[in-house]
Design a protein that fits this description.
Layout lengths: L2 H21 L8 H23 L7 H28 L4 H23 L4 H28 L4 H19 L10
Length: about 180
């Protein structure tokens, strides 16, 4: 691997890390600084993620594509879990909802990229069934949590976020990962 590739990937990873770190620096009150930091976080994610993907070669074998897809799904699940936990720990404040929303969007990008790596229709169907199963489990989890917490404000917000994610997973379309050729 060339030194320029290592430097570029390092910069891209730093952008990704900074995008997530900035989310946790958001002030509690929504003001101009809040929106400015929020926008910078989203921008750094886009720059870091899509530039990083462009530095990798297209997977040559089905095993490599499967591994890359697994990394995308695991990354999406981790990002999304952090956002959902943020709503739970933040007791449903506007700040926590905004963090969960942006992490949900980022997770959906990762999930779509994972599905886009599937080349054969049988694999795509399997991935689609897995996403639909996860959607049903998320929807059930959202309803369960809201009922268990007696429809407290936090539980309704968290349940709504889980239902939104369930709808997104149910309707997701796979996009091709844009690796370099």
């Amino acid at each position: 691997m060339k030194l320029s590739n290592v430097v570029e990937r390092t910069i891209d990873v730093v952008c990704l890390i900074a995008s997530f770190a900035i989310l946790y620096l958001l002030p509690d009150r929504i003001n101009v600084l809040f929106y400015l930091l929020f926008a910078v976080s989203a921008f750094l994610f886009c720059i870091g993620f899509f530039r990083l993907i462009a530095t990798f070669d297209e997977p040559d074998s089905p095993e490599e594509a499967w591994l890359a897809g697994l990394v995308f799904v695991a990354g999406g699940a981790a990002v999304n879990a952090c956002g959902i936990y943020g709503v739970y720990a933040g007791k449903g404040t506007c700040r926590s909802i905004m963090i969960a929303t942006v992490t949900l969007i980022e997770a959906m990008v990762l999930y779509a990229m994972a599905g886009g790596l599937a080349r054969d229709s049988k694999v795509k169907k399997t991935v689609s069934v897995l996403y639909k199963t996860a959607a049903v489990l998320l929807a059930a989890g959202g309803v369960f949590f809201a009922v268990r917490e007696h429809f407290s404000e936090r539980s309704v917000i968290l349940g709504t976020m889980l239902l939104i994610e369930a709808v997104c997973l149910w309707t997701i379309r796979f996009e091709s990962a844009k690796f370099k050729k």
